[in-house]
Every structure is written in C-alpha cells, then in structure tokens.
Amino acid sequence: MKLIPYAALAAKGIAYSKVTLWRKERAGTFPRRVPVGASRYAYVETEIDDWIAQRPSGASLPIRFRHRNVPAPPWLKGRARERVQSQPAER
Questions:
Q1: Is the dihedral of CA 42, 76, 85, 25 positive or negative?
Q2: Which residues have CB under 8 Å from 52's CB, separation 6+?
Q3: Cα(first)–Cα(last) distance of the chain, in Å?
Q4: d(Cα 21, Cα 58) in Å, to the nearest integer?
Q5: Are 43 and 1 in contact (CB under 8 A)?
Q6: What is the mean pLDDT of the chain?
Q7: What percent of the chain stands above pLDDT 90?
Q8: Looking at residue 48, what is its pLDDT?
Q9: Are 68 and 90 in contact (CB under 8 A)?
Q10: Which DSSP string do the residues of 5-69 spell out, in sequence order?
Q11: How far apart (Å, rounded) are the C-alpha atoms in residues 26 and 20?
C-alpha cells in the first residue's frame, strides 16, 4: 500500500483544493484520507487510481494547475490540454 500526500494529487490531474476534497470525502464521492502522523494525512494511491478510472471518459477534472512544472495529464486531449499547458503559473 503506497501512500501519497495531497501535493502528489496534482501530478495525477486532480487539482481540487483541500477543502473541496474534504467535502467530497464527507459526501462519499472521493477516497478518504488516512492519518500518517500528527496532523498529517495521505491518500492510498490505488484508491485514487481506481477513482480516476471509474470516472466517465467525458467527465472533467479541474484543469487549473497551480504550478507550471506540473504537466497536463496524458488522458487530457485537444484544446483542454492546450489550455492547461499555456496557462501562466499562479503566484
């Protein structure tokens, strides 16, 4: 079981804020975090991958990435991919 922190979700194309993820967890629409220490949480990577795989192919994830060095996910096609790659980094 591999655990990944919140920051690693962006590399998988999940750019939700921590608050949005918390709300989705409570609603049962996103995998729950697991505690890994005092005030530290992580996600089980296989659960995140399964969640991504279960989404319909037409369903979109937020495409606003906060860091320029995060590439667009490989499954993002066409104009959406171009928008992600051409957006300037937010500061």
A1: negative
A2: 12, 13, 14
A3: 34
A4: 20
A5: no
A6: 77
A7: 37
A8: 93
A9: no
A10: -GGGGGGGT----HHHHHHHHHHTSSPPPEEEETTEEEEEHHHHHHHHHHS-TT-------S-TT
A11: 10
The pair of three-digit structure tokens given for residue 65, joined into one six-digit string: 């990435």
- State both tokens at 6: 């919140």
pLDDT for 34 equals 95
Assign residue 6 a region (left: φ > 0; alpha: ψ between -120 and 50; beta: otherwise): alpha
Dihedral sign, CA of 31, 64, 76, 1? negative
More confident residue, 84 or 3: 3
Output the six-digit token pair for 85. 């790659």
Query: How much is the average pLDDT of 40-61?
Result: 82
Closest CA to 13 of 2, 24, 55: 55
User: What are 14's two structure tokens?
Assistant: 């999940």
pTM higher than 0.70: no
- What are the structure tokens assigned to 42, written together? 């992580």
What is the distance between the alpha carbons of residues 51 and 33, in angstroms, rounded to a whole number? 13
